[in-house]
Amino acid sequence: MKYILLIASLLFSVACFANTPVITQQQLLENQMSDNAYTIIDVRSIEEFNDGHVKGALNIPHNQIEENMSVLEELKDKTLVVYCRSGRRAGLFEKALTEKGFKLKHLEGDYLAWNEKQLPLIKK
């Protein structure tokens, strides 16, 4: 059942947000080791973020873009990797920031795939 949900979320993410380039989990892990690491944005709620997030991720909930625009503007010259639980909220966030000229990548499979592969998480 988990496998079916994972595949469904991957297909949903790719189909809905095809305009944002996708980065794989492996590519992100390799990028985190480089001097030019991307900035990672977790757009889930603070509660979800505290339960576990990708190392180095900033938490900017998808429905708080305007409240965090000053923080986002400081990151405008960087590539942002965006994820949520399954892709829907990240897609909304990506649409809003694309319209404002940000450079974005979408984490393939979002949090569900990252967690399913048992990749490193930070928990508070």
Automatic annotation (TrEMBL):
PROSITE patterns the record matches: PROKAR_LIPOPROTEIN, RHODANESE_3
Keyword Iron: no
Keywords carried by this UniProt record: Signal
InterPro entries from the UniProt entry: GlpE_sulfurtransferase, Rhodanese-like_dom, Rhodanese-like_dom_sf
Residues making up the signal peptide according to the UniProt record: 1-18
CDD domains: RHOD (cd00158)
UniProt cross-references to SUPFAM superfamilies, sorted A to Z: Rhodanese/Cell cycle control phosphatase
Residue ranges occupied by any Rhodanese domain in the UniProt entry: 34-123
Protein name as it appears in the record: Phage-shock protein
